[in-house]
Amino acid sequence: MFTATRTDDDTAGYGTTAEHLSRLVRDVPGFLGEDAAHTPGGLSISVAYFRDLAGIEHWRRHPEHVDAKSRGREQWYERYVIHIARVEHSHAFTRP
Q: What is the CA radius of gyration of the chain?
């Protein structure tokens, strides 16, 4: 789970990079899915689901993800927090 507050720097390729990473993570062994939400004020929450810690570690070390994290600290984020947690139960609702 990645919660971040963005900087005002919208010209530095954040959107393109985020879309690219969203496609890349799908090829990581053990990847199960992702959810994301963003507010106009710059708050973003992204949750990636993996089968196990090995998948998380694979993604953490992926070279393009490593580069994007570096750019994020330099340009895109005022602050961020990462939480790694186990989902014990999940259910959903979708309006018909």
A: 14
Q: 31-38 and 77-82: which strand pairing? A: unpaired
- What per-residue string of b and e applies to 28-66 under the rule 16 or more CB within 10 Å gives b? beebeeeeeeeeeeeebebebebeeeebbebbeebeebe
Query: Mind listing the pLDDT tens digit for each residue in 42-74?
Result: 899 999 999 999 999 999 999 999 999 999 999
Domains of the chain and any CATH numbers: 2-82 (3.30.70.100)
Q: Tell me the pTM.
A: 0.86
